[in-house]
Amino acid sequence: MSTDIGTSATAAAIGARRTPAVPKWVMLAVVWVVLIAVPYWLPLLGGYTALAGRVLVFGLAAMGLNLLLGFTGVLSFGHAAYFGLGAYGAGLTLRYLTHSTPLAMLMGTLLGGLAGTLFGLLIVRRRGVYFAMCTIAFGQLWYYLAYSWNDFTGGFDGLRDFHREPIGFGPLTLDITDGGNNFYFFLLGVFGLAVGLLGLLVRSPFGHTLRAIRENERRARFLAIPVERQIWLSFSISCFFTALAGTLYALLNNFADPLALHYSLSGYLVVMCVMGGMRTFWGPLVGATVFVVLQDYISSMTVNWMSFVGAIFVVVVLFFPRGLLGMRRTRKSV
Fold first, then answer.
1. Which of 3, 31, 81, 240 could form a disulfide with 113 if both were Cys (CB 3.0 to 4.6 A apart)?
2. Residue 325 exposed, middle or buried by CB count within 10 Å (0-12, 13-18, 19+)
């Protein structure tokens, strides 16, 4: 009798632990309602719609990097290269080839994604610091190319004289040229589609093999998982999503500059992932939100904004080693 009572109590405890207080779909619905309503509540808090657009752009870039960093366990310090290539690909297409926003996004995404796919083949067998150093070296190669090719890329001043164009859907036209609410909802739509694809990927058998590699590469090999191929695919897909974010960055600013290719931006993306929780799906978006808002607010008061953001990052790492969203998961498991 006492054994049955103990077993029932244990089962009830496990069930209570596994069942969150608020269902996931409710939390997800709340997040999307908040994002959709941004143009209406953010100005009341002193913000502006373009700031929310930057959060979506860098959030998507960080979530793309997190597929490699958080779910595969491989650190890249060169993802700014693919972000910048996406931005330059979109900008160069709009300036020199055609005035089509979708085609510019396609060209930018292909440029950054294919560059990452080819480069990944060369370094897929490297691990740890060697892998990270190779990614930095490749990224700096693109940075100096954009910096020195003044006639084509605008050099240090960046690529200008292009702007986003209206998008036609048959008889309907979406005017995103003014950068207002229409453009924010366009960014949100692209962000939603990309995040949906990422979510399906993470939950697929392919996503489970990435977690297996992250947890124990040796055991993953023992289970006949083709480790190098999976890491290469993860790197390649990650670069495609980061390049897509880069195209949105170019459309957001109507501008592309070499700093979008610089390794410092790669460091910012890693900070966003770690700050939000790199082993969670939405953690990088939370990290990007905190980083971009702090950058915008503190940089309006001092040029040494990175010192303050760095101090906050240190506090987060010390007291929330799993990131801001990882902290929530840790409390659940206690």
1. 240
2. buried
